[in-house]
Amino acid sequence: MPNRVLAITGGARGIGAAVCRRFAREKYDILFTYNRSQTSAQKLVEELTPECTIVERQVDVGAPNEVRELFTFCENTFGRLDVLVNCASHSSKTGWDVLPQQIDWEEWQRTIDVDLKGTMLCSHAAFDLMKEKGGKIINFSSSAALYGDKPTYFYTAAKSAIVGVTRAMARMFAPTVQVNCVAPGSIATDWITNWKLTGEDLQAIANESPSLRVGKPEEVAELVAFLASPQCTYMTGQTLLIDGGILML
User: Fold this and answer.
1) Strand partners, 5
2) Rounded distance between C-alpha atoms, residue 50 and residue 82, angstroms
3) DSSP type of residue 247
4) Could you tell me which of 157, 158, 93, 138 has the C-alpha nearest to residue 236?
5) Which pLDDT tens digit goes with each residue over 87-116?
6) Is 153 among the residues known to form the active site?
7) In the prediction, which pLDDT does 211 show?
8) What is the mean pLDDT of the chain?
9) Choice among 34, 147, 153, 155 that is catalytic
């Protein structure tokens, strides 16, 4: 039997890299994309090559031609696709905590292109490879989007829309392909250093959660692995929060 195949966007760092490590333990063949994180991508390939077949590709997931090339490469290289994880995301200080009168619409468009358009483009291409034999698509929203977070206004716009397209795709791609969505809360990835959060900042975030801590990328990866597993057969169109209990929707 050939190995199962995972394609994941934004797989070089953070939650995406944790997902790659989790699926490598299951001996999946892995194809992951990165945009700017070439060094991290190469290190991840070196780390996981002893465990599985893993290939990286630099892709702008908001560009239709690059997405087409990615999934053509997937088909030609592996001959199949079993799981797609749409983890690629874009955010920057330009889109952080801005007033409506100060919106940089080019930055807003970039966020929409990567997070929302990229999710849709990759899901459509993946479905073409999955529709005969079945598969799983796992999208990424955010607890901030479900809450209606003000500082992440651009990000909230894209990530809340992903909840809706997850439901729509679950109906369109049924019954052969299940489509679900993961909505993480505060997870300990490099946004902590990028945004220069202090220990006090992290403690304040942790105190908002009944769990009294921030989450780990590996915990999110376990949820993704369950949604992708053969044991998860009767769930589709759902958005699952993993935020330590802050929202409890």
Assistant:
1) 29
2) 21
3) S
4) 138
5) 999 987 787 888 889 899 999 999 999 999
6) no
7) 85
8) 93
9) 155
The stretches of 49-152 forming alpha helices (DSSP H) are 64-78, 105-111, 118-130, 143-147
136-145, 149-158, 217-226: least confidently modelled range: 149-158
Structure tokens at 89: 């995301």
Cα–Cα distance, 164 to 182 (Å, whole number)? 13
Tokens representing 118 are: 């990229």
Question: Could you tell me the two tokens for 203?
Answer: 């403690």
Q: What is the pLDDT of residues 37-74, one digit of tens each?
A: 999 999 999 999 999 999 999 999 999 999 999 999 99
Token pair in block for residue 193: 């250093």
Q: Name residue 222's amino acid.
A: E
Whole-angstrom distance, CA of residue 179 vs CA of residue 236: 5
136 touches 227 (CB < 8 A): yes
Q: CA 56 to CA 44: how far, in whole Å?
A: 9
Q: Of 160, 184, 154, which Cα lies nearest the Cα of 246? A: 184
